[in-house]
């Protein structure tokens, strides 16, 4: 019966209306545009500009990213896709996404680091993936997920915890449980936000991010009625 309805849905609505859309921060990454499609990398309410060489910590070759500056003082927060030439200890691989949270030393005037996802279509949304602390230097970062400004779930990653790039802290393991990030009814242009806050004012830290958004679109009412009528007619044969 499932295969029958899948085929029927495709014949009535078209395949694009019957399949989920998957949005991956890593796959969708751009070093050209911010916002980039539904994604916006921000400090507070402001999309971050691009820097070609972010060097508050040393890289072997220039590391591009999204930050107010590549220098000390106003260099945080930063979002980057690692080029793999870090000259310091870290727990992430080349091409993985990393954020360094805002702090009072190098984030003067900046709001908290956050990723804003603008929902492109109505449907049922789920958040996949997780986060982990990027270095073991005695620091911690809190993360929170909001939908249209309402807190859904939150958690923390800290130096010495059991999470890593190979075993991230899943968003489904946050304070709200798995149900807080799965099966969410959303409308077009709803706002999903993942925010990062340093646990102390002296220094934030790097956090690795594996973030995907999965949306099953809501079919048009008329199309659903059409599917129901066809299905009823076939069952009566």
Give a verbal description of the structure.
The chain is mainly beta. It has one domain: Jelly Rolls, CATH 2.60.120. It is 14% helix and 35% strand. The chain contains three helices and 15 strands. The chain has helices at 2-13, 15-18, 221-236, and strands at 21-24, 39-43, 46-47, 50-51, 65-66, 78-81, 97-100, 113-118, 123-133, 140-147, 150-158, 169-170, 184-186, 191-198, 206-217. Strands 1, 6, 7, 9, 12, 13 and 15 form a seven-stranded antiparallel sheet that branches. The protein has a six-stranded antiparallel sheet with strand order 3-2-8-14-10-11, with no helix packed on it. Strand 10 (140-147) and strand 11 form a beta hairpin. Helix 1 packs across helix 3 (221-236). The chain is globular, with a radius of gyration of 21 Å. The model is unreliable at 1-17 and 221-237 (pLDDT under 50).
Number of strands: 15
Main sheet specs: 7 strands, antiparallel
Low-confidence stretches: 1-17, 221-237
Helix-residue proportion: 10-25%
Strand content: 25-35%
Oligomeric assembly: single chain
- Number of helical elements: 3
Based on helices, strands and strand pairing, what is the structural class?
Answer: mainly beta
General shape:
globular
CATH architecture: Sandwich
The figure for the number of domains is 1
- List the helices and strands in order: HHEEEEEEEEEEEEEEEH
Overall residue-averaged pLDDT value = 88
CA distance, first residue to last residue: 15 Å
CATH topology: Jelly Rolls
């Amino acid at each position: 019966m499932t295969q029958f309805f899948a085929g029927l849905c495709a014949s009535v609505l078209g395949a694009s209306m019957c399949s989920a859309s998957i949005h991956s921060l890593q796959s969708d990454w751009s070093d050209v545009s911010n916002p980039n499609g539904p994604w916006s990398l921000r400090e507070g309410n402001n999309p971050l500009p691009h820097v070609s060489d972010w060097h508050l910590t040393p890289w072997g070759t220039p590391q591009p990213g999204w930050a107010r500056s590549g220098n000390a003082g106003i260099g945080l927060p930063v979002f980057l896709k690692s080029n793999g030439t870090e000259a310091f200890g870290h727990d992430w691989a080349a091409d993985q996404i990393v954020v360094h949270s805002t702090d009072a030393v190098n984030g003067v005037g900046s709001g908290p680091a956050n990723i804003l996802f603008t929902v492109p279509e109505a449907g049922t949304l789920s958040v996949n993936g997780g986060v982990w602390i990027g270095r073991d230097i005695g620091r911690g970062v809190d993360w929170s997920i909001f939908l249209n400004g309402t807190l859904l779930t939150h958690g923390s990653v800290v130096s010495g915890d059991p999470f890593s790039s190979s075993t991230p802290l899943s968003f489904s393991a946050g304070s709200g449980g798995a149900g807080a990030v799965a099966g969410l009814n959303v409308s077009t242009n709803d706002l999903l936000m993942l925010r990062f806050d340093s646990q102390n004012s002296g220094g934030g830290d790097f956090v690795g991010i594996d973030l995907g958004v999965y949306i099953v679109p809501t079919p048009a009412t008329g199309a659903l009625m059409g599917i129901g009528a066809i299905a009823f007619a076939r069952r009566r044969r």
